[in-house]
Design a protein that fits this description.
By secondary structure, the chain is of the alpha/beta class. It is built from eleven helices and twelve strands. Helix content is about 40%, strand content about 15%. The strands form three sheets. It has an eight-stranded parallel beta sheet. The protein is globular and about 60 Å long.
């Protein structure tokens, strides 16, 4: 057993219960919001989020991992208000989300740069994990980075190496946003391993967007967890294909290397809300409980395997 930091304090890993490993509460560009979203109602948005999370708790889910980091609009005081109104455990992350360049705050400072100092990303990530995020008293529990279709750009590589170094130094686990169609999970594993990260403590996110069993097994055989974590995003891969992939991997003995989630959010400013509701109507926190788990059971995935994916794998991520 291990101690896991949540927004409202530490819990034992054994008490995480059923866990979704990749969900967001708010994905929000704060600078954009302050300049252009004139109709923003903070109290209503918080109330909506509380409703969604309490509904999820009512469906039997106990914990979510929220990998909203710099680049996605992490703002912990808002999350604290929400966490105080739900019994759902919310576990937050540190890291940086980019597909290309890093923010200008880091362009000129770092090893070998204009201001030649130790990697400031490692310093900030470590502080979030060990001391707390800003002055909130909330400690991050895991790390997040990304590699998309653009591949290992210099900015992506710098962030990924900083995440790997921080994980090696602190023991914190990692989640990586990947594009499985470019097999970027294998690239992420290579870079993180070079920096000393333990690949068994890495979720290769969005693996569920792929039906390439050879690729998925190769990632899992290296020790990492497959994030089957975009249920509801049928525009990227149809529901049946997502189900079939998990069923086949479970048959092949990989239930202990898969974890489930939606990559959904209470609010995201990347899309028009009405268009989002019409295009991906099942992209919400309820979809796995209401649709995915019954489909998996019907296809022969056992209750034990489902418990492994929902409870044992997330727990092992921290232990």
């Amino acid at each position: 057993m291990s101690t896991v930091q949540t927004v409202t304090g530490s819990i034992d890993s054994a008490d995480m219960g059923k866990t979704f490993v990749h969900e967001h509460i708010f994905v929000l560009g704060e600078e954009y919001r302050q300049n252009y979203q004139y109709d923003w109602d903070e109290e209503q948005k918080i109330a909506d989020a509380v409703r969604d999370l309490n509904e999820l708790k009512g469906l039997g889910i106990d914990t979510i991992f929220d990998p909203t980091v710099i680049g996605l609009g992490r703002y912990i005081p808002r999350i604290q208000q929400i966490a105080a109104q739900t019994d759902l455990n919310i576990v937050v992350a540190t890291g940086l989300y980019t597909y290309n360049e890093i923010p200008f705050q880091f362009h000129y400072s770092g090893p070998g740069l204009l201001f030649d100092i130790p990697e400031p990303l490692v310093t900030l990530f470590t502080r979030d994990l060990t001391e707390g995020i800003a002055d909130t008293g909330v400690r991050a529990a895991f790390l997040k980075c990304a590699i998309e279709e653009q591949g290992l750009t210099p900015g992506v590589e710098r962030v990924m190496r900083a995440v790997g170094q921080t994980s090696a130094q602190t023991g914190a686990p990692i989640t990586v946003h990947t594009n499985p169609h470019t097999q970027s999970g294998l690239v992420a594993q290579k870079i993180l391993a070079e920096e000393g990260a333990d690949l068994t403590k890495v979720v290769i996110g969005h693996s569920g967007d792929s039906t390439d069993l050879d690729y998925l097994m190769k990632v899992a055989d290296a020790g990492s967890i497959l994030g089957m974590d975009r249920f509801g995003l049928d525009v990227l891969l149809p529901f049946e294909d997502r189900i079939n992939t998990i069923v086949e991997l479970a048959k092949r003995g990989y239930a202990d290397r898969m974890a489930l989630a939606h990559d959904a959010s209470c609010f995201i400013d990347w899309f028009d809300p009405e268009a989002k509701a019409q295009t991906v109507p099942k992209w919400n926190f309820r979809h796995i409980s209401e649709d995915v788990l019954p489909a998996l059971t019907e296809r022969g995935v056992t209750d034990e395997q489902i418990t492994t994916m929902l409870v044992d794998v997330p727990r092992r991520y921290f232990e």
